[in-house]
Amino acid sequence: MARPSNRDERRAQIVDGLLRVLPETGYERATIQRIAEAAGLSPGLVHHHFGSKLEILLA
After folding, report:
1. Positive or negative, the Cα torsion across 10, 14, 20, 21?
2. Structural domain includes residue 14
3. Angle between helix 32-39 and helix 6-29 axes, rounded to 10 deg
């Protein structure tokens, strides 16, 4: 079976970061910065993969 692409892994990492931040902050206070920190990534990389928090949530 093919290994998931790095892009898919990064996107999953970002979604996981959002899911870790939401219980602590709620959606309105879940910033890209906090999501990036929870995912262990830079905010710029989060923006590279997703245009908004809503896009992350819907992924």
Report:
1. positive
2. yes
3. 130
- Other C-beta atoms lying within 10 Å of the C-beta of residue 2: 4
Q: What is the CATH number of the domain that holds 17?
A: 1.10.10.60
Structure tokens at 33: 């910065």
Please state the pTM of the whole predicted model: 0.88
> Quick one: tokens of 39?
């995912």
- Average pLDDT of the chain is 93
Q: Is residue 1 part of a domain?
A: no
d(CA 33, CA 42): 8
Residue 26 lies in a domain: yes
Q: Tokens standing for 6?
A: 């790095």
Tokens representing 2?
């093919």
